[in-house]
Amino acid sequence: xxxxxxxxxxxxxxxxxxxxxxxxxxxxxxxxxxxxxxxxxxxxxxxxxxxxxxxxxxxxxxxxxxxxxxxxxxxxxxxxxxxxxxxxxxxxxxxxxxxxxxxxxxxxxxxxxxxxxxxxxxxxxxxxxxxxxxxxxxxxxxxxxxxxxxxxxxxxxxxxxxxxxxxxxxxxxxxxxxxxxxxxxxxxxxxxxxxxxxxxxxxxxxxxxxxxxxxxxxxxxxxxxxxxxxxxxxxxxxxxxxxxxxxxxxxxxxxxxxxxxxxxxxxxxxxxxxxxxxxxxxxxxxxxxxxxxxxxxxxxxxxxxxxxxxxxxxxxxxxxxxxxxxxxxxxxxxxxxxxxxxxxxxxxxxxxxxxxxxxxxxxxxxxxxxxxxxxxxxxxxxxxxxxxxxxxxxxxxxxxxxxxxxxxxxxxxxxxxxxxxxxxxxxxxxxxxxxxxxxxxxxxxxxxxxxxxxxxxxxxxxxxxx
Length: 466
Ligand code: GLU
Ligand code: ZN
Known about the structure:
- The chain is mostly helical.
- Among the domains are: 259-335, Orthogonal Bundle (Glutamyl-tRNA Synthetase, domain 2), CATH 1.10.1160.10; 375-461, Arc Repressor Mutant, subunit A (Orthogonal Bundle).
- The protein has helices at residues 23-39, 57-70, 93-105, 116-128, 144-152, 200-210, 226-235, 266-272, 276-284, 298-301, 319-331, 335-342, 348-354, 364-372, 380-389, 391-404, 408-419, 424-435, 443-449, 452-460, and strands at residues 10-13, 42-45, 109-112, 158-161, 168-173, 177-182, 190-192, 215-219, 242-246, 249-250, 315-316.
- Strand 8 (215-219), helix 7 (226-235) and strand 9 form a beta-alpha-beta unit.
- Zinc ion binds at residues 112-114, 138-139.
């Protein structure tokens, strides 16, 4: 690991607590976390909760809890503090007010008194004349006297950023490469809402800068916001971070990952019993080509994270891939850890037997029933195999069981002699009669764990015509 050659970077994850941690955001958080760790730098968690209507404390708590479950620990954040505290935007009003005043005093921002209807009408007119709708700059030209007059009348206002004219904004996006925007194409945008709260463009940009963030990774949907944010920071004389915009996360059908694809939040996968390291191994390879294809523990992902190999194209979340990583991840666990994960106080013998046949704790339910309960009705293929073996086969099997002392080898030896069957023709019907399934854990130890009474009952149930 050559951490020595890297400059320590400061990255961040800046979720809005308006819902639970979406997998797309979890991936962005992972990449940001890894980038900081790879460079020996810092990873910051900032809560973007200026929208008081949609932000909720329970979402913030759950976000933080799910981040911790994933193992994406932050060096600075709302709970751990740090030199740039506070880390919740709702608590940073004073800082924003200072910057608003500064921008206004320099003429880089101005109050806008336009009503919603006036703005709508203006947009309509622009569209009709074939121009892209943007703020026409109506209030930019107001004189001090005119502004004072509006204030006297009690008109409410927003604060708009005055876009500098005839500027070209260029930056190199970490993912998308060189970008070029003309300031004349961008309308003066709102940085303070009517109710006094800061708009996203504003607080997001100034906080990144003020918190010393050097590298911003975020979703593609923010790429076109970036020139606005750069102009804002320039106007304030604040340092601009580097930006990288990662592709969207899609479902298997190519549509943006959403509820109709099933689980979409880290929390849901956690509740279903997916291991965080399985989720991380899938996310690590979504839109990112690492030099390692094998399973990695989180601590070893950082040196193999390659920001220059982040893809522009949208990535697809695939259930089958996640299950693959789940299987590999489960294999790393001790029987004790598997027992905790199953969460049902199972005997060790049971855990050792079924651990390779379960992907999720829910899968163990069926195996518990195999050992101590009723079997589910047979599937069509299983019924066919049982019927083909015939009733005499199972009568003979029940007999052989009595003579074999629950030893599978001697049972099958006797049964082979009596019926002339061997191989799969002998094993399959036996397994299906005993477990209800054609596949599963090793049969010999399973047989030893089964109550003799239950074994007899299961074999004899096929020994007569139903
Ligand atoms: N709160 C913003 C979001 O969740 C942050 C965007 C960014 O990372 O800059 O979309
Ligand atoms: Zn206006």
